[in-house]
Amino acid sequence: MNTVLIKYKTQVLNYLDENSYHIFSLNQLKTNFGDDFTSIFRALKSLINDGIILPLQNGLYCRPGFSDQNVLAYYLAPKGSIAYWSALHFYGLTDQFPNTVFVQAPTLIRDKKIMGTQYKFIKVKPSKLIQIDIIGRGNSKFAITSIEKTLVDCFDEIDYSGGWEILMHALNVVKLNNQKLIEACDAINNISAIKRMGYLIEIMDKNNLKSFVNYALTRVNQRYSLLDPSGNDEGKYLSRWKLRLNVEVSEILSSSVNMY
């Protein structure tokens, strides 16, 4: 093998090892190696052919065996955040492990399957991208929605939450901050979701969230919404919350105490 090529391949690997880079971009190599980049790029392609480096997408690469899906999602969508069911699982609010990593982002990104994992990118308005926390540091960090924002997002898009039963349990066991919950609801501005949350928190008797219940009552409109939007259009009408109760209270309370 060309000794010059071996030299540059070694330089690339040393650079990654010295900086503990499991994921890296082409721009990082350009910045670090400067005038030698043409040779470094040839070395990179050779490392890919050898299976020592894996290409993720245009200009983005990783070392084989890297398994932190949340960090990988952060590199695939640098302005995105782990959200919905994936965030519920991260916070320990469900034992059900999602087969898909859900990522909220301000731009349209095509869904991807990388190293056997499906990544789904949900585009939302930039105004909805609030309460984002950074977990980890350096090359191993990722962004995730706060617990409050996660719950509100799941009620806004129940299809991405893992299902009604999972969401009922999460809402019942989670500790929430009134003000952060209100702030997240204002950002989403989904009246039906706010009514559902207000009603459910009320019947679950979460006394520490009375301020949120009072807030939710101020957002009640005159249009009736199904309690479970994925259920049948049936059940009693509840005028206080303008909800049609297509799920029995006993069923809700049973779901809320069981881990799914």
What is the H-and-E element order?
HEHHEEHEHEEEEEHHHHHEEEH
Number of helices: 11
Tell me the number of strands. 12
Uncertain stretches: none
Specify the helix fraction band: 40-55%
The side-by-side strand order for the widest beta sheet comes to: 4-5-7-6
Shape type: elongated
Overview of the molecule:
This protein has 260 residues and is α+β, with helices and mostly antiparallel strands. Helices cover 44% and strands 17% of the residues. The protein contains eleven helices and twelve strands. It has helices at 3-18, 26-33, 37-49, 69-76, 84-90, 147-156, 164-173, 178-188, 191-203, 210-218, 249-257; strands at 23-25, 54-57, 60-62, 81-82, 100-105, 112-114, 117-123, 132-135, 142-145, 225-226, 236-238, 243-245. The chain has a four-stranded mixed β-sheet with strand order 4-5-7-6. Strand 8 and strand 9 form a beta hairpin. Helix 6 (147-156) packs parallel to helix 8 (178-188), helix 8 runs parallel beside helix 10 and helix 9 runs antiparallel to helix 10. The radius of gyration is 23 Å and the shape is elongated.
Summed up:
The chain is an alpha+beta fold and 260 residues long. Helices cover 44% and strands 17% of the residues. The chain has eleven helices and twelve strands.
Layout of helices and strands, plus pairs?
Layout: H1 3-18, E1 23-25, H2 26-33, H3 37-49, E2 54-57, E3 60-62, H4 69-76, E4 81-82, H5 84-90, E5 100-105, E6 112-114, E7 117-123, E8 132-135, E9 142-145, H6 147-156, H7 164-173, H8 178-188, H9 191-203, H10 210-218, E10 225-226, E11 236-238, E12 243-245, H11 249-257
Parallel strand pairs: 5-7, 10-12
Antiparallel strand pairs: 1-3, 2-3, 4-5, 6-7, 8-9, 11-12
